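Supplementary Methods. Inverse-folding protocol.

Structures were first reduced to a discrete structure-token string of length 548. This string, shown here, constituted the complete conditioning input.
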């Protein structure tokens, strides 16, 4: 009661409390006489007026609802301005945000993002996101952001692979992003060929300069073009619930990626109980970056969520030939410690008319547990990955990177159990562990089936030395061949990674480092078929096979 009286004293009949929201240029006014309302300018929201009595109710409850600032939730009115204003008020006064039970919020294509700094409960509300006519395809619907500002690091000119400490001191623990534009990595080969990307890495560093061994520096940086430290939020932010329906864009089928999504750029976030659906996909459309897009942060958990694979469209790639475009519902970029638990996909994970659900770049310590997705994928590298208690669909596991890759208690479908992406050199600088798994090869009329597939001619410079997994350990793997045609009798540990490497006199311009050792504890194949080393035994003649 005392606190309430003190607060009432602050507001006389004519007194105004003005605040400038840190999320946008928006004036927030608390007034005893005026009713709660939004003041709209010519093109955008200018101010929010909140009646003093309403404000005290929000403060007492600890949360504010979208309807409190005027959202109708009728499925017809564009509610995004009211949603945006609600989050601005919540951000300013540390309120949680709640959607209204049973509401249907229509969100037009207007560029009007809402910034989230506080816990948000979408509940059982539905959000209808209309992408047919969009002002800015790069603007998210919701931006989950940290209040803390990036720290510019000066005076640091070099970093070394696996470096343990730095003389740099920070005010708090940070995720550090560093790049060297004088070195090109991931020089892509094939239909989507390119000239590579500047050498990039991310790592965790505490305020004393200690670098986290679980997410080490993986490159030498003899030159640093840019380096930024992003403080790690210690308080957990929770985003819960909500049914989101995207009315798909009808744009030309080109690489013009849409980002009409929930964009997370804050550490220590939990996304749970969210569902995303897609409708209105036609004969053409532009691809999507991911409805849940996570980047430049650490310690993010996505659990108990349902996502949807996007229809596959084709275009002309960089090599001037037709190519299928990647389109994603989950994407991860420059993230450390990201987990997906008990997440599933609405459409058939074995339907190849839909692209693989998940993609990642430049990330470390990615984990799937109890997930049912059409694929796991790492484009420009992952350091350490784990798939447990999960099922991967027709695209299986596609990866390049380094560190430890563990696949356990899982069923993997696809052309191979593990595909080392050939467009990035089929490289894995580390070890693979396969434990208590089932591999179900996809139905193909002919051709060899392999546990590990990939390709490397030894003639392309990818910007790094390419490795096959140094050590492979297989402990209880069953290969179920029931989907294969009768004429497919060939089951190999390794695919034919280089059909030209069949004699000693074959010389590689960029030598591909083969696997050193394979340990097999228990491997069975339905129909009592035998496991071959490879359709190209010469290439793998030096691999040591240990069977227990």
């Amino acid at each position: 009661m005392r606190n309430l009286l003190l607060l009432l004293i602050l507001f006389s009949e004519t007194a105004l409390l003005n605040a400038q929201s840190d999320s946008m240029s928006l004036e927030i006014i608390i007034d005893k006489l005026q009713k709660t309302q939004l003041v709209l300018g010519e093109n955008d929201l200018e101010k929010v007026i909140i009646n003093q009595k309403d404000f005290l109710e929000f403060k007492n409850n600890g949360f504010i609802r979208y309807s409190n600032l005027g959202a109708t939730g009728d499925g017809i009115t564009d509610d995004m301005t009211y949603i945006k204003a609600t989050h601005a008020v919540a951000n300013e006064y540390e309120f949680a945000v709640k959607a209204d039970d049973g509401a249907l919020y229509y969100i037009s294509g207007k560029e009007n993002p809402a910034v989230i700094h506080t816990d948000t409960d979408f509940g059982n509300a539905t959000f209808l996101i209309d992408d047919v006519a969009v002002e800015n395809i790069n603007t998210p619907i919701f931006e989950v952001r940290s209040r803390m500002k990036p720290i510019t690091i000066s005076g640091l000119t070099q970093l070394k692979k696996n470096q343990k400490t730095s003389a740099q001191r920070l005010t708090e623990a940070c995720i550090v992003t560093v790049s060297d534009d004088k070195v090109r990595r991931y020089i892509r080969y094939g239909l989507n060929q390119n000239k590579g990307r500047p050498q990039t890495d991310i790592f965790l560093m505490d305020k004393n300069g200690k670098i986290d061994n679980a997410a080490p520096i993986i490159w030498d940086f003899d030159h640093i073009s840019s380096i930024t430290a992003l403080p790690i939020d210690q308080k957990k932010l929770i985003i819960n619930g909500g049914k989101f329906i995207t009315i798909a864009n009808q744009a030309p089928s080109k690489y013009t990626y849409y980002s009409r999504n929930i964009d997370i750029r804050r550490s220590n976030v939990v996304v749970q109980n969210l569902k995303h659906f897609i409708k209105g996909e036609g004969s053409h459309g532009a691809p999507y970056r991911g409805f849940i897009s996570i980047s430049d942060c650490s310690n993010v958990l996505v659990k108990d969520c349902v996502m949807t694979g996007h229809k596959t469209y084709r275009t002309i790639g960089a090599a001037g030939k037709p190519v299928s475009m990647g389109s994603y519902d989950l994407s991860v970029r420059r993230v450390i410690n990201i987990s997906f638990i008990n997440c599933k996909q609405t459409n058939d994970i074995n339907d190849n008319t839909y692209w693989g659900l998940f993609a990642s770049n430049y990330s470390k310590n990615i984990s799937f547990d109890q997930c049912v997705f059409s694929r796991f994928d790492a484009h420009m590298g992952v350091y350490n990955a784990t798939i447990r208690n999960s099922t991967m669909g027709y695209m299986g596991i596609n990866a390049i990177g380094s560190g430890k890759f563990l696949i356990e208690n899982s069923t993997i479908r696809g052309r191979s159990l593990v595909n080392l992406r050939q467009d990035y050199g089929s490289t894995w600088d580390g070890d693979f562990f396969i434990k208590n798994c089932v591999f179900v090869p996809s139905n193909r009329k002919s051709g060899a089936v392999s546990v590990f597939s990939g390709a490397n001619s030894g003639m392309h410079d990818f910007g790094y030395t390419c490795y096959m997994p140094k050590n492979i350990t297989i402990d209880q793997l069953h290969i179920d061949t029931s989907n294969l045609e009768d004429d497919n009798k060939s089951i190999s540990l390794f695919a034919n990674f280089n059909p030209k490497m069949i004699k000693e006199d074959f010389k590689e311009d960029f030598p591909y480092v083969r696997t050193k050792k394979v340990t097999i504890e228990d491997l069975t194949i339905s129909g009592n078929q035998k496991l071959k080393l490879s359709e190209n035994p010469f290439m793998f003649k030096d691999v040591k096979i240990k069977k227990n």
